[in-house]
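Let us practice reading a record.
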Amino acid sequence: MIEATPWGRKPRFLIRDRDRSYGGDFIARTLRIRIETVLTPIHTPQANGVLERLIGTLRRECTDHIISVNERHLRLVLREYLAYYNDTRPHRTLELEPPDGPRITQPIGAVSARPILGGLHHRYARRAA
């Protein structure tokens, strides 16, 4: 647990299932370091669906295509992908807009593409006419 929260930053909540592999004193240990444990309901595998969907998307669209050479490199890749995911990538549930708000585009002009993650993804925009 301590190794999972380096540099003095820690989450306020830990959402987990009821697996016995955590041990009997796990909740008490998290409370000692001021992290509240939230248990998922019994027999509901879909309770973690949102997080599992995000992790699956992250793997399919990013980490399955990049070999990280060390932790620093992986953090840089994840930071760049997260910016792309929130600022540029269209989301079906948001009417094909990114989570951080609609993209402002020019109605006319040539389309330019800016590579993201070395060309794994692109950000498209219209140049002013």
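A brief commentary: Residues 13 and 36 are 5 Å apart (CA to CA).
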